[in-house]
Specification:
There is one protein chain. This protein is of the alpha+beta class. It has two domains: 64 residues, Double Stranded RNA Binding Domain (2-Layer Sandwich); 80 residues, Winged helix-like DNA-binding domain superfamily/Winged helix DNA-binding domain (Arc Repressor Mutant, subunit A). It is 34% helix and 14% strand. The strands form two sheets. Strands 1-2-3 form a three-stranded antiparallel sheet, with helices on both faces. It has a two-stranded parallel ribbon with strand order 4-5. A hairpin with a 2-residue loop joins strand 2 and strand 3. Helix 4 packs across helix 5. The longest helix has 14 residues.
Length: 183
């Protein structure tokens, strides 16, 4: 497993789902940490995970935070305008993340559907593993990816599947099953 690049900074920020943290470098956003059990736990995790220190938001990070908050408040936004620093992300994972970013808010896809677009349904497990390594939660919307039967599975963030469901509901997902096609 490759560690993320050293982030210049991180900052905690409030959202409707709790206190999140964003980490960034000169190359873009290096990660987004979903809420842990407390703001202190979120800060500890982001410092450990991204090797970052707390700083005031940079203009780029502030724009990302505003977009994330707006999306969580129900303003449809795919967050694709947020620049990510993925210089050390494996090529396959990068392809998966780019595909996931094409799923519009309020819509869902399946691991198998993404796998089929990347070369074959046999890659579904690899797609799930790549999304499990996603350090850009919400910005790379792994919560929009469901199992083949439309069930909520595979969300390791604090809050687990309940948080995955809440994120989908906040985006206005009307059905928690695959709703393809997408771009």
């Amino acid at each position: 497993m490759t560690l993320p690049p050293p982030a210049a900074a991180y900052r905690l920020f409030d959202t409707v789902i709790g206190v999140c943290a964003i980490a960034w470098s000169d190359g873009g956003i290096t990660g987004l940490q979903l809420p842990e059990r407390s703001p202190d736990a979120t800060a500890a995790r982001v410092m450990r995970r991204f090797r970052a220190r707390e700083q005031p938001l940079s203009p780029r990070a502030a724009q990302a935070v505003d977009a994330i908050r707006a999306m969580l408040d129900g303003v449809p936004d795919d967050l694709t305008s947020i620049a990510l620093d993925m210089h050390d992300v494996a090529p396959f994972d990068r392809q998966v993340y780019e595909m996931a970013r094409r799923i519009p808010p309020g819509r869902t896809s399946t691991y198998g559907e993404i796998a089929a677009r990347l070369g074959g349904r046999a890659l579904a497990r690899a797609v799930g593993q790549a999304l499990g390594r996603n350090r850009f939660a919400i910005i790379v919307p792994c919560h929009r990816v469901l199992s083949a039967d439309g069930a909520l599975r595979g969300f390791s963030a604090h809050g687990g599947l309940a948080l995955k469901r809440r994120l989908l509901e906040l985006e206005g997902a009307t059905a928690l099953r695959a709703q393809l096609p997408f771009g």
